[in-house]
Design a protein that fits this description.
heterodimer; A: about 190 residues; Thiol Ester Dehydrase, Chain A; 5 helices; 7 strands; B: about 140 residues; five-stranded antiparallel beta sheet
Chain lengths: ~190, ~140
């Protein structure tokens, strides 16, 4: 963990990755927090409310950001203020990466402080498949693709995960497709030792 | 904006029911977000994000205050949240919350509700200040 003397403006906070998110985890957060709005707890209600299924509580995503900052600062008391906007829905299957960057380093009221800009990104699996020389492209779609979770303007990311070159020249590529979107943008003030 | 919405601005929530912070509630909350710092699991301290539990549990009055403004809670989305941490919260504390509707407005076909709240501990000192922004989708207001 860094001390205030060691950091400078522009430095990145150690990122925190969580996921893939499971429906049971969302439900457990609903019970633990008391926010049992059916859009988080009940798949059918999530659909009925026009969301295509349950979504993660924004505040569970925010908790990941808080954890990133207290882990990085090395103290559960390090978080002085956090201010976030929820920009995209986090859904089952998503992997959530929280990041932050120092924008200001200063002292106030005998505390050594840094302000950070927060960016959290949710990566949704869209499909997985194979490309072979003679059979072409085969894709097995994930929930995001057939439950209306994608929106116009989304960019799909192609990621080859395995490439095989057979002796008979039957080349084969296994790949995954993802969509990434910002789930949280925000700012925080953190106390450093 | 119609006068119907304006009448809610500045309206205070009925006093929140005091809640006792228990080690078990903090532990379950920490486990539900996967933040396994020993302080949160052994009853020493509540994690910062436990603020959500506090405001949800103690601000039941908000539901009453917003009645008539939000017709379908299923159409509510959380749009933003601010927490200012002033004093740590730990198991054994008794927290009382007060709050008000700070603003209500329509934008992009949605109704936006901004609430401000404060959580005070048993010593009468403010532990957490919160600002919550809710967006109510069409059909919900």
């Amino acid at each position: 963990m860094p001390t205030w003397d060691q950091v400078k403006e522009g430095d990145a906070v150690t990122p925190l990755v969580k996921g893939p998110i499971h429906r049971e985890e969302i439900k457990a957060y609903g019970t633990a927090s008391g926010d049992t709005n059916p859009i988080h707890m009940d798949e059918k209600m999530g659909v009925a409310m026009g969301l295509g299924g349950v979504i993660q509580h924004g505040l569970r995503s925010m908790a990941f950001v808080s954890q990133m900052l207290t882990d990085w600062a090395g103290s559960p008391h390090a978080l002085k203020k956090i201010d976030v906007q929820f920009r995209g829905m986090v859904r089952p299957g998503d992997t959530v990466t929280s990041t932050a960057k120092i924008t200001r380093k200063y002292q106030a009221n005998q505390q050594k402080l840094v302000d950070v800009d927060i960016l959290q990104e949710a990566r949704s699996p869209v499909g997985k498949g194979t490309i072979t020389q003679f059979e072409g492209v085969q894709v097995e779609w994930e929930e995001a693709a057939f439950r209306g979770w994608l929106k116009g303007g989304d960019t799909l990311i192609y990621e080859p995960v395995k490439e095989e070159k057979g002796a008979d020249k039957k080349n084969r590529i296994e790949f995954k497709l993802y969509r990434t979107q910002n789930s949280i943008l925000g700012k925080a003030t953190v106390i450093l030792p | 904006m119609s006068n119907h919405y304006k009448e809610y601005i500045g309206k205070g929530y009925p006093p929140g029911k005091p809640i006792s912070v228990t080690a078990d509630a903090v532990k379950k909350f920490a486990e539900s977000v996967g933040d396994m710092r020993p302080d949160y699991l052994n009853g020493s301290l509540a994690l910062p994000s436990f603020a959500n539990h506090i405001f949800v549990k103690s601000l039941g009055g908000a539901v009453v205050a917003l009645k008539g403004l939000v017709k379908n809670p299923g159409k509510i989305l959380h749009a933003g949240e601010t927490y200012e941490y002033i004093e740590p919260v730990k198991p054994g504390d008794t927290i009382t919350t007060t709050g008000k509707v700070a603003n209500v407005y329509e934008k992009a076909n949605m109704l936006w509700i901004v609430t401000e709240a404060e959580a005070q501990n048993q010593h009468g000192r403010t532990a957490i200040k919160a600002t919550m922004t809710l967006a109510v989708r069409p059909g919900g207001f």
